[in-house]
Amino acid sequence: MSWILIVEQLLNGLQFGLMLFLLAAGLTLVFGIMDMINLAHGSLYMLGAFLAAWFVQLTGSFIAGVLLAIPATAALGMLLELTLLRKLYARDHLSQVLATFALILILNEAVRLVWGSDASLPLPMALSGPVELLPGLFYPAYRLLIIGVGLAVAVFLYLLILKTRIGMLVRAGASNREMALAMGVNIPGLFTIVFGIGAALCAVAGALLAPLFAVQVGMGENILILAFVVVVIGGIGSIRGALVGSLVVGIVDTIGRAFLPIAFGAFLPPQFASAAGPAIASVAIYLLMAIVLFFRPQGLFPARG
Amino acid sequence: MKRKAIAVSAISAAFTALLAVPLASQAADKVRIGFASTLSGPSAALGVDIRDAFQLAVKMNGGKLGGLPAEVLIGDDQFKPEVGRQLAEKYVKLDKVHFLTGYVFSNIMLAAVPVAFENKTIYVSPNAAPSPLAGKQCNPYFFVASWPNDAYHEAAGQHATNKGYKSVYMMAPNYQAGKDSLAGFKRFYKGDVSNEVYTKLGQLDYSAELAQVRASKAEAMYIFLPGGMGINFIKQFVAAGLSREMQLITPGFSSDQDVIRPVGDALLGTFDTAHWALDLDNPANKKFVAAFEKEYKRLPSLFAAQGYDTALLIDAAVRDVKGKVEDVEAVRKALRAAKFESVRGPFKFNKNQYPIQNYYLRVVAKDSQGRLVNKTMGTVFKDHGDAYVQECQMK
Questions:
Q1: CATH for B151-274+360-384?
Q2: Using CA atoms, how far apart are residues A117 and A135, in angstroms rounded to an integer?
Q3: Beta pairing partners, B35
Q4: According to the model, what pLDDT value does residue B203 have?
Q5: What spatial distance separates the first Cα and last Cα of chain A, rounded to whole Å?
Q6: CA distance A50 to chain B (A)
Q7: Residues near A283 by Cβ (< 8 Å), separated by ≥ 6?
Q8: Interface probe, candidates A4, A120, A264, chain B, greatest B C-beta count within 10 A
Q9: Do the chains contact at B41 and A261, CB–CB below 8 Å?
Q10: Is B310:B126 a contact under the CB 8 Å cutoff?
Q11: A123: Cβ–Cβ under 8 A, 6 or more apart, which residues?
Q12: Distance from C-alpha of B74 to C-alpha of B83, rounded to nearest angstrom
């Protein structure tokens, strides 16, 4: 095992974490500010990927396709919020879970009707191979792009939340909704905007990951579970928590998968190591979540005081 | 209570026997088929292909199977074993179908087929063919019109041996079918196993594994990653530039037409093994591929080929018994003879009613119209059965 492999795996962890961050950021805002459990968040991710595949096909340009998919998904998300989800805020979490689960099923079949059960979005030619970062360290160019975009989105959200008026209202809503309402904040309008931002982030993740992952009906459910783990670890409603949580989950998951089987092999008999390594690695992030919940039930960076 | 139950069942058995005797001696007026498959949800594409091809065969036959008007009852198991079983109960007990078929996934089929076995209804599998039913638990009412679960992996292992690969890196999800698949590969692969990795079921990101693969410097890589996992993996394998460093080998279903659609050019040059290919040179296949493309405006997958063959097999058996489909023993005998022109070429049943057939090496390439398809490169196995048939005590 060489240092090159370790660096490469750390980069992989960073990339996986940043991708999770795009989903978790939107989810934590909706969850924290609106106190709304939105299981259909993953469906917006799926919509983003299918829209990107469709627009790339129509325009013939990868960049144009992705840039069109983002506002389109945001618009669909805001439409969903205005027409349907708004009615659910006053209900308890169980009703929200039921209603948004129904929404998952409806959106899955709707996507199948419009585009079929899968779509294809090939890698842009210029980024289709690996680049040599250091002598002997080859890294896929496209994954570098994801790291770049993920970092840029993190900085953008940081500025948006901490330096703008909307960000101030979002923070106020997250830490104490009733007080923000009493101070005259236009909460319904704010919610629609927050939901739109969340949907746009989903589209960024869906469109960027489409060349690496299967674009198919139901793709959102799988990744939503990971996003929820991140939100719980990071602290509900906190963007900073989502960023730290995503990076921790991404790196723990990657390092676990890469090195746990090897580490087990060093001090356990091979037939046991080959069974235990992958088994422990696949639950590593859930173990992490359990440990965080035990010591800090509010998550690492709770938004509420 | 118990004695009463025995009495009731004795009476009903007597009535059933009374009813069955006169019916068995004359031809039925139509043949009823229960077709339960996964037709909705993320994994629906395979079931839809099987159904479409099955219905195409019936349509090309003028709505008949074996000379009898065919009534095909279609149901969606929703990818749930309990729903699959309910459908089997309905078709077998209520609709009294003559044949049950359709299930794509082993776990759903294994929940449903006992209903058919207990009621002496024949199940013809258009896809799932797990090892237990090939060996100790083989059953007279179970026929496989596809291929034994291990066969593609065995053929892939043989291909790796033929090519003389010195080291192969292997990967499968961490569950029983994953372990069986790699065991099947190793049964016929004589070179070194560079590494054998089991990943999480439903995994999305393979970057960590791919870094290890690159470091291993293996000559070839074999994967068993069904469904979305395979699509994720192959896209990432190519994005990492590994397709230039080692040869990717997959089982046929991981690079067939239904995977080509979402993955696209990344699959170019992938080798795989299967019992059927789009360009197999026999009249039955040419007729099938042309008719399927005309009817559904897409190329058939190997699942479609299996669905079509299932219909042809039933067609031949019903014709053989001259429409007397109520006589289950005669129908069984006719099915075992398998007197039909399969789109895969030579086909016969083993003692355990699993197929003995050829397996082909295929490569993903562009056809004359620039479409991505599998091209046949040669025959890996001729008249190949399965490793479990000795354990089957059935006559």
A1: 3.40.50.2300
A2: 42
A3: B74, B101
A4: 84
A5: 45
A6: 11
A7: none
A8: A120
A9: no
A10: yes
A11: A142, A211, B235, B238, B239, B266
A12: 13
Three-state DSSP state, A260:
helix
Asked if the Cβ–Cβ distance from A108 to B42 is below 8 Å, we say yes
Closest CA to A210 of B228, B41, B221, B244: B228
Contact B107, B81 (CB under 8 A): yes
Residue B335 near residue B313, CB atoms below 8 Å: yes
The superfamily CATH assigns to domain B2-147+281-349 is: Response regulator (3.40.50.2300)
User: Which value does ipTM take for this structure?
Assistant: 0.79
Q: Do B232 and A217 touch (CB under 8 A)?
A: no
Q: Is the pLDDT of residue A237 over 90?
A: no
pLDDT at A78 over 80: yes
Strand blocks (E) in A204-293: 215-216
* Cβ <8 Å between A214 and B228: yes
State the pTM of this model: 0.81
| Cα A145 to Cα A208: distance, rounded to the nearest angstrom | 9
Q: Which two tokens stand for residue A96?
A: 């929200």
Could you give the CA distance from residue A99 to residue A90 in angstroms, rounded to a whole number? 13
Q: Where are the domains of chain A?
A: 7-295
Q: Is the pLDDT of residue B1 over 80?
A: no
* A126, closest residue in chain B (CA to CA): B239
Give which of B312, B311, B304, B236 is closest to B267, Cα–Cα: B236
- How many Å separate Cα A208 from the centre of its chain? 12
CA distances from B18 to B12, B15, B28 (A): 10, 5, 17
- Closest residue to A254, CB basis, from B198, B208, B235: B208
DSSP codes of every residue in A31-72: HHHH----TTHHHHHHHHHHHHHHHHHHHS-HHHHHHHHHHH
Within A55-178, strands assigned E span 118-119, 130-134, 137-140
pLDDT digits (tens, 9 = 90+) for A43-58: 999 999 999 999 999 9
Q: Is B276 exposed, middle or buried (0-12, 13-18, 19+ CB in 10 A)?
A: buried
Q: d(Cα A233, Cα A245) in Å, to the nearest integer? A: 6
Q: A61, A78, A43, A58: which is closest to A206 by C-alpha?
A: A43
Through-space distance between the first and last CA atoms of chain B, rounded to whole angstroms: 38
Q: Is B371's Cβ below 8 Å from some Cβ in A? A: no
Q: Do residue B200 and residue A282 have CB atoms under 8 angstroms apart?
A: yes
Q: Can you point out the beta strands (E) in B126-283?
A: 142-144, 167-173, 192-199, 220-223, 247-251, 271-274
Q: Is B44 on the interface with A (CB under 8 A)?
A: yes
Q: According to CATH, where is 3.40.50.2300 located in chain B?
A: 2-147+281-349, 151-274+360-384
Which CATH fold would you assign to the domain A7-295? ABC transporter involved in vitamin B12 uptake, BtuC (1.10.3470)
Residue A300, phi then psi, degrees to nearest 5 = -70, -40
Q: CA A5: distance to chain centroid? A: 26
Residue of A nearest to B179 (CA): A275
Question: What's the pLDDT tens digit per position in A157-215?
Answer: 989 988 999 888 888 887 777 888 888 888 888 889 989 999 999 999 999 999 988 88
User: Using one digit for the tens of pLDDT, what is the confidence trace for B165-224?
Assistant: 999 999 998 888 888 899 999 999 999 998 888 888 878 889 889 988 998 999 999 999
Whole-number Å distance between alpha carbons of B132 and A188: 59
Who's near B174: CB < 8 A, 6+ residues apart? A278, A279, A282, B198, B199, B200, B201
Closest residue in A to B44 (Cα) is A117
- To test the contact with chain A by mutation, choose from B171, B196, B205 the residue with the greatest count of A C-beta atoms within 10 A, namely B205
**E-strand stretches of chain A:** 118-119, 130-134, 137-140, 215-216
Of all residues in chain B, the one with the smallest CA distance to A221 is B42
